[in-house]
Automatic annotation (TrEMBL):
Keywords: FAD, Flavoprotein, Oxidoreductase
Similarity comment text for this entry: Belongs to the acyl-CoA dehydrogenase family.
Name this polypeptide is given: Acyl-CoA dehydrogenase
Domain Acyl-CoA dehydrogenase/oxidase N-terminal residue range list: 16-131
Gene Ontology CC entries for this record: cytoplasm
Gene: acd_2
Amino acid sequence: MPGLDAATAGAWELPEELIMLRGTVRRFMAAYVHPLEAKLEHDTVGLPREELVELQAKARELGLWALQTPEEFGGAGLSVLGQVVVAEEASKCRMGAFFPALGAFGGNPPNVMFKASPEQFAKYARPIIDGAMTKAYTAITEAAGGSDPARAIQLKAVRDGDAYVLNGSKMWISHAPSADWGVVYARTGEGRNGISCFIVEKDTPGLTFHRIGVMASFAPYELHFDNVRIPDDQLIGEEGQGFALASDFLVHGRIIYPAGPIGIAQSALEEACQWARDRDVFGGKLADKQGIQWMLVDSEVELRAARLLMYQAAWNIDLRYADVRTDASIAKLYGTEAAYRVLDRCIQIHGALGLSKELPLERWFRDLRVKRLGEGSSEVQREIIARSLLR
């Protein structure tokens, strides 16, 4: 684990192959990502396509590509534990909250595509794995209440001959305008068995995108569907199977999600430690002050705990435990909340400099505030955990 050596790690450590993979990602970040990002403006979002393609080519040469895609579909088939290890390291850059490694580690279509038909997979997912397309978005959330998608989805999909006609909207969708296509969940009936999943191409008539301004550097989008006609061969699975297709992947996402905030907070803590060692105050160093020491200690303890909770959830899902929903919610809840607290302390330690754009701290702070809401808010995770405790 980051910050631990063999003498202090105790009896548990990552498998050797994941330690080696983590080292490869760290070297990639140092050699390519950090120098490239240093040339960009503080609040830059994403790379120009030409630079992104070049960076992704370097990642593919090192095998850092399609890591989440199962081997039978042409990917690396990395375990969930391996995915969180990579995600933590890849987040350690200024854009890391929304563009880990600046988007270098691509090649992963939306997970639901692994349950698509062979024809759908070949047309839409294969070009992403092969690098011909950069990404696709997933649209589940709506304004009515995104934390419970089974109830909240109101986007209508009505059968009309050999097509479905979609009317309604989606909210808080990342990467939508820059993606070639997306996976959209819409209501075709009542209840959980009334949700279906569709592939929607970017330029489909009636589909429009509207940027939503938020406090983070990276803005999501609202998608409007005005009589958007989708051929029935773009339905994934059977009608009404959408929620069942998505449910497993939602759990996966909650386990991987805190890796980014944890990686960012780890970077912030390292900067705070260096600042405390260097900063002269009242005839000594900032690091000599017990109040500062305790802030650093509390941060280190919380990050180790958050990382281990995430590792445990990933380990359990890799072992195919029957139900890891509670583990996933605990990892997501504690990881995002702890990372936010650590970052807040690190800004406090830096004083006014922590609020300036000379450092990435203030951008990270805005981004991590968003992360406490993504993949289900902290309150939703507490509700899931409570249900498990009180069953």
